[in-house]
Amino acid sequence: MSRSQDPQRPLFSFGNPFRMILPKGSNLSPKLLDLLNTFEVTLVERLKKLKPLDREDVLSLSWMRYAMESLCAIHTDIKTLITALELPVCDWDDKWIGVYLDNSVKLLDICIAFSSDISRLNQSNLFLQCVLHNLEGPSKQFMRARSSLDGWRQHISSKNQRFEKCFAIMDSLAATIDLPKIKNSAKGKVLMRAMYGVKVVTLFICSIFAAAFSGSTKKLMDLHVPESFSWAEAFTDLQAFINNEIRNLYSSGRVTVLKELEAVDTSVKKLYPIVQDGLDPVETEVLQYSTSDLRIQTEKFSQGLDLLAKEVDSFFQIVLTGRDALLCNLRVGGNVTDSVQPNNNVEGQAVR
């Protein structure tokens, strides 16, 4: 494979970017320490559960769905922390607000790119439905079935142009992963430390999805987390396991690294010679088995995509509602005059 398979140089390999946020001897009240500890312990648990027991589960649609579900939970955790901190928006530093709003709109754009590709993959099933329709009836239509198989191959190999923008967004998020310095707010220090964890895990999972959908490890990131964070070990272990497995999958020369899509592709390869050369009477059983297998794998793939699409939409809504809540609070405080009107349709959302 190309040089894109080589691991990227770890980001932020210098010292703890938060030594100015929580320096040695920093005095946080027991309540704030407890809130921070609860958040970080929960984060460790979520990271450990994300590591699959079987390597074969990496980049299965079920694992990707669980990864997005976990990301939704982590973003909910940070909202819970913000509420518990009792830190009103009017006390937020302008830099915090700017970072939050900038990051949130970028995450919305990334979600749209993911949803777009899930939709593209789902559309490919229309070709396979045509194949099954032409082969499962009493009168076999081999030429039509072969044409649909060719259409499926061409559709699957097409590229989603949204990912070029998605890659640029991920680069900008990585470049600003270290958060603003906090001077005079103990609550702000806790919030920024927790938000750092959320941002790192979010970027990591997004890079996995980008690698899975784009067919390239070009933007598979290796993020360095300082050891001073209690969740650093769990994150580093998970990242090394997942990234190494993804790189191994691509280096093996597979057409796709999505497990369910690979199963469909295998079924198509078995069926194609039969519909291409015509059916010999002795191959009737083979055709029946191959057609049945294709239907089973197609249904698994379709169901997996539908469930994953729902989780991506859930994440979109969590980010969007959090952004809207902040803007609403700012408007109440007289700092923001523009309005945001959420749209529940992910595909149709125009993010500004």
From TrEMBL:
Q: Which domain of life is it from?
A: Eukaryota
Q: Which InterPro entries match?
A: ROH1-like
A Pfam family name for this chain? ROH1-like
Q: Which UniProt keywords apply?
A: Membrane, Transmembrane, Transmembrane helix
Query: GO cellular component annotations, sorted alphabetically?
Result: membrane
> Which residue ranges run through the membrane?
190-213
Topology versus the membrane, per the UniProt entry?
Single-pass membrane protein
Asked if the keyword Protein transport belongs to this entry, the reply reads no
Localization in the cell: Membrane
Q: Which family does it belong to?
A: Belongs to the ROH1 family.
Indicate what this protein is called per its UniProt record: Protein BYPASS related
Protein's organism:
Forsythia ovata
What lineage, starting at the top, does this entry show? Eukaryota, Viridiplantae, Streptophyta, Embryophyta, Tracheophyta
